[in-house]
Known about the structure:
Structural class: alpha+beta
Distance between the termini: 22 Å
Shape: globular
Oligomer: single chain
Helix content: 55-70%
Order of helices and strands: HEHHEEEHHH
Amino acid sequence: ARTMRSEHEIKPQDEVPLTLRSDDARITDLLGREAVSIRTLVKTAGDATVEKRGGARPRGAVMNIAADTEVLVSLRGLVDPAKEGARVEREIKRAEKDIVALEKKLSLPSFADKAPPEVVAESRAMLEEIRRRKVSLEEARGLAAELAEG
């Protein structure tokens, strides 16, 4: 949740609505016991809501998964839709540029044939990671649109 605050440039003084979803009773018990710590570390608007996993992502919220727990932070009223849209577009362009560069590098026979196999494998893994990030960013375009709807 703290990373999500940072990625979306939420002001440090702003409190965020936080929902945590897990099907593991041990995790939900732990989250309940640590409500004050979570509220303090994340700077939430009241205690985090803890519920079962599943269901749709609420409009205007971002979701990530950590330790088999869905972490949802609502950005409504906390993030400027225009700034969020511009940030996402910048990130998409950066990802596209990186993808083109890595694809070019991997297509060069001089690299693919002469570089150590672990270096080639690392470059391929990096390319896949950037492609996954681009897909996530494209989904984030929809979030920016949701925030603009109000």
